[in-house]
């Protein structure tokens, strides 16, 4: 599967409606983004079960702002709607492959339990 362009309108549905979603926040003028693009594209081709999205931070400034993007490229990975990885900077192919293996191996029952626990603690703290 090749990469898909994500917009403010499609971002949330894409993240919640797919098991694993990788998102590359980039811009045309960004040198590191251009060097990362072939690695990201190659990774998308070799992992057809994963959605590989791209967000053009120039065209989607509100989305980039809502995501707290301060430097690009920034890679986010979501599994079952939960962000499980976020890092700025271009990753080499080997690191991408390792990241995908780690995301596939996550115990999502445990991840969801920890998210629920953190949300409960935050709700309790705000009372």
Predict the CATH topology: Glutaredoxin
Proportion of helical residues: 40-55%
Q: Segments where pLDDT lies below 50 for 5+ residues? A: none
Q: What is the CA-CA span between the terminal residues?
A: 46 Å
Tell me, what's the shape?
globular
Q: Would you identify the CATH H-level superfamily?
A: Glutaredoxin
Number of domains: 1
Widest beta sheet: strand line-up: 1-3-2-4-5
User: What is the SS-derived class?
Assistant: alpha/beta
Taken as a percent bin, the fraction of beta residues is 15-25%
- The average pLDDT value, as a whole number, equals 94
Q: What is Rg?
A: 15 Å
CATH class: Alpha Beta
Count of alpha/pi helices: 5
* Quantity of strands, as a count: 5
Order of helices and strands: EHEHEHEEHH
How would a crystallographer describe the biggest sheet? 5 strands, mixed
Describe this structure in words.
This protein has 127 residues and is an alpha/beta fold. It has one domain (4-125): Glutaredoxin (3-Layer(aba) Sandwich). It contains five helices and five strands. The protein has a five-stranded mixed sheet, sandwiched between helices. Helix 2 links the parallel strand 2 (20-26) and strand 3. It starts with a strand and ends with a helix. Residues 1-105 form the Thioredoxin domain. This is Thioredoxin. Belongs to the thioredoxin family. InterPro entries: Thioredoxin, Thioredoxin-like_sf, Thioredoxin_CS, Thioredoxin_domain. GO terms for molecular function: protein-disulfide reductase activity.
